[in-house]
Amino acid sequence: MSESQQVVQQSAKSRVRPKPRTKPKPGQLPPYHVVLLDDNQHTYEYVVEMLQSLFGHSEQRAFLMAQQVDRTGRSIVCTTHKERAELKRDQILSFGCDFRISSCKGSMQAVVEPAQE
Fold it and tell me: How many whole angstroms separate alpha carbon 55 and alpha carbon 1?
């Protein structure tokens, strides 16, 4: 093989790049529920406004959740990964009191629970 052929062959080799490694996809994070708890200190209007503001629920869906909280004492308002569920719970806890009820002392209560898969 001539010297010029070797140079061409070497430059062709140097241009060949190894395939980039593809990172394995991380496993899906386990789901958690944000559960709104009833306390009889907040109006349906408050609950609907809060759910629309914090979660983007429609008025109809938020009203159904408010009814469920009133009827059963709790309602799952969001299912997501743990970090976001904790954030959403904290947003509920800091939403503020219901100005429509003079005896209202603060926000509604909420908890984060592992979702059963």
Answer: 71
C-alpha to C-alpha distance for 97 and 99, rounded to whole angstroms:
6
Global model pTM greater than 0.90: no
Partnered with residue 6 across adjacent β-strands are none
* Letter string b/e over residues 17-42, b meaning 16 or more CB atoms within 10 A of that residue's CB: eeeeeeeeeeeeeeebbbbbebeebb
Give the list of residues 6+ apart from residue 80 with CB closer than 8 angstroms, or none.
31, 32, 34, 88
Cβ partners under 8 Å of residue 7, min gap 6: none
> Which domains occur in the chain, in start order?
30-114 (3.30.1390.10)
What does the pLDDT profile of the chain (117 residues) look like in tens digits? 666 565 556 655 556 666 665 555 567 889 999 999 999 899 999 999 999 999 999 999 999 999 999 999 999 999 999 999 999 999 999 999 999 999 999 999 999 999 986
